[in-house]
Amino acid sequence: MAEHEKKDVDAHTGVETTGHEWDGIKELNNPLPRWWVWVFYATVAWSVVYMIFMPAIPGLPGIGGEYTPGLRDHSERANVREALADLQDSRGPMFERLEQAAAEGGITAIEADPDLLGFAMAAGESAFGDNCATCHGAGGQGAIGYPNLNDDIWLWGGTFDEIRHTLQVGIRTDHPETRYSQMPAYGRENLLTNEEIEAVTDHVMALGGLIEPTEAGRTTGAEVFELQCSACHGVDGRGDQSIGAPNLTDRYWLYGSAREQVRNSVWRGPFGVMPNWGERLDDATITALAAYVYLLGGGQPDEFAEAALMDRGTGGAAGE
Amino acid sequence: MNLIDRRPKAAPGVTEIDATPVNDAEVRELYKKREPIYPKLVKGPFRRFKWIFMAVALGLYYVLPFVRWDRGPNAPDQAVLVDFANARFYFFFIEIWPQEVYYITGLLILAALGLFLVTALFGRVWCGYACPQTVWTDLFIAVERFFEGDRNKRIMLDRAPWSFDKARKKIAKHAVWLVIAAATGGAWILYFHDAFDLLSDFFTGQAPLTAYLFFAMLTFTTYTLAGTMREQVCTYMCPWPRIQAAMTDREALNVTYRVDRGEPRGPHKKGESWEGRGDCIDCKACVAACPMGIDIRNGPQLECIGCALCIDACNDIMDKVGRPRGLIAYDTDDNIDRRLKGEAPRYRFVRVRTLYYAISFAIVAGVMLFGLMTRSTLELNVTRDRNPNFVVLSDGSVRNGYTLKVLNKAGEPREFALRLEGDPAFEVRVLGTPQASMMLPVDADETRDFRLFLTLPPEAIDRASEDITFVVEHPGTGETARAPAVFRTPLER
Ligand code: SF4
Ligand code: SF4
């Protein structure tokens, strides 16, 4: 103890040491640098000012709220809400222009206006990434059971209005106007014998050019097809977009083109579902989404748009 | 009070000044609190040149943002403008886009090589005359001198107890410093916005927050660096004094005390012979004049910024004692040695080192000039969709999607003709343009994205991928830009 009480002064500098020693090295008891001390005082002063003006002390009794709100009544939550509202406001005019163009000239009018086209593509792309990419893939390329949106093959129609409608009502949802079709589960519900299922599988695969026609397919298969399938898929198997019946003669097979996959579709009757986005997204976002999907490359012009296209050939933009 | 006048005379009519080289490496510890330096005003050709240079440099700095340059209706008309919002840099006839920052790199290389060259030729003339730290410090010292008087008066004022008069002088000095500092920060921000607009917005409180922020920052740094830190910036903060050692050599001109002529030094009485002694009368006028607080007679040292004020100071003394000027002068280390050995001095400006710097400078400048002259006002970038890689359509044809970025760097809106080199069987469709047209309109000074689809019919598909080249051409000027790309088909697996 005694050593600790007597002041130990470093001979070289004449500065008192703290009395601590490590391996012969002693720590000088220099005062803190003045700038450091002033910064420290400044932070203390600042903390008092901060407490007065900003939300600070939680859990005090009798202050009504959960914390002292401070004179400035600052709230990050309110700021975020405000920022979001501002964002909506700033995008509002563009969305209005988009809706108006869509209503007056359809996709043609959107395409004709570079600003609008850029906006629709950007807004559509971000909405697509948030909502659709999970099933349809980041580029809309689809997967087995989830349609490829890039090609020109559409179950429910590929015009701008049809795409938008599909987005609004969804497929097999509880929306009253939802897109709805049902293919019977021929195998699971014992509507056809195994032999008949094999035969009709042969038949549709031949229709789509996947295999050479087989004997069973040409006879039993064709017969079954005419009785059971042609009502929806058409006698020639070309499908019907108004009832969502796929075209069986094109190159695209939503549930796969391997024999096992095609047979499986007949056996269980596929029943894909897409949410009705109308209840989650606002109309303008859905319009942007429809434009984006249409412009992925597979969108099909309808009559209205086609007429407008003629106009544009001579320089006039549709909707003007 | 007359503690200075009682000192022994260095020579008749010349007062020895009580000046210590406080910043000399010899007397300075590794870290020491700054000791104030009170540079004495000198008169002479170098001082005059410095005033003129200061006036020109500051004049340029303050006037340049207001100079206009007509670039047509779609571009800003400010001659020198860094337009961050639109990612453009304008310098008179030069306009630089973000992807052309290599011009800025080139400019920096030129500046470095130029600095090397002049350093190899004339020593630290950059530090002495052109460096902003020097220019503003010099200005601040002039203000100080205006309010507080020259060296002796300033020393006495600082030693005197606080009085109303002292306070008045100090406050006035700092007020003027602050005004200059604010004007410095204020002019800086003018280079980043339209100067006239910003000036009015600034005073009505409508300028962007960043403008005020940078204004405050530069005001603060100018005030502290030029007002209170001065030579410490050059000695401790600036890397250049260290680097320059590699740039100069024994044959570079530097502010030099000619030891061969000056030593041995000592006071000199009128009528006394100059035989057997040097020309330096040890009056310390050179030390008192030095804004860096050093004694040039101790030889070349990194603290010296080469401002040549000691040359002016000593020449004045030499005139008074009737010795030739140039005891301190721009000279080379080599010449000192030569004279000591009895050889004639020589000045060689064309040396391997200077040639090397000059040639490198010329090459870089030439390349940049060539680049600027042949700079295209049209550019094309193509990215192919990767997700999906390709799309098979119902009839078996294959489609690839591409995004074309067309940069129109001209000052007017232009239309470019698109064509494809490679397989002619493609069906081309460009979103946002009339179906049959292959004309891509782009606004003035803009980049526009076009989405484009190429479709190949099934019978034409025979390879995993086709090499194609997109070409855009401006029909008016024949300017073209090309971008290679590929077209992928399902045959790739
Ligand atoms: S070098 Fe010149 S100015 Fe400096 S002390 Fe000697 S005579 Fe005086
Ligand atoms: S020694 Fe002379 S040249 Fe060097 S900084 Fe001092 S006055 Fe300027």
Automatic annotation (TrEMBL), chain A:
Heme c 1 binds at C132, C135, H136, M274. InterPro entries: CcoP_N, CcoP_N_sf, Cyt_c-like_dom, Cyt_c-like_dom_sf, Cyt_C_IC, Cyt_c_oxidase_cbb3_su3, Cytochrome_c_Oxidase_Subunit. It holds the Pfam family Cytochrome_CBB3. It is found in: Cell inner membrane. The keyword Iron applies. The chain crosses the membrane at residues 35-53. Binds 2 heme C groups per subunit. One of its GO terms (cellular component) is plasma membrane. GO terms for molecular function: electron transfer activity; heme binding; iron ion binding; oxidoreductase activity. Its cofactor is heme c. PROSITE patterns: CYTC (PS51007). Its main location: membrane. C-type cytochrome. Part of the cbb3-type cytochrome c oxidase complex. Component of the cbb3-type cytochrome c oxidase. PANTHER family: CBB3-TYPE CYTOCHROME C OXIDASE SUBUNIT FIXP. Belongs to the CcoP / FixP family. This is Cbb3-type cytochrome c oxidase subunit.
Automatic annotation (TrEMBL), chain B:
Residues 270-299 form the 4Fe-4S ferredoxin-type domain. Keywords: 4Fe-4S, Electron transport, Iron, Iron-sulfur, Membrane, Metal-binding, Transmembrane, Transmembrane helix, Transport. GO terms for molecular function: 4 iron, 4 sulfur cluster binding; metal ion binding. The chain crosses the membrane at residues 49-67, 101-122, 175-193, 205-226, 355-373. GO terms for cellular component: plasma membrane. The keyword Ribonucleoprotein does not apply. NCBIfam families: ccoG_rdxA_fixG. This is Cytochrome c oxidase accessory protein CcoG. The gene is ccoG.
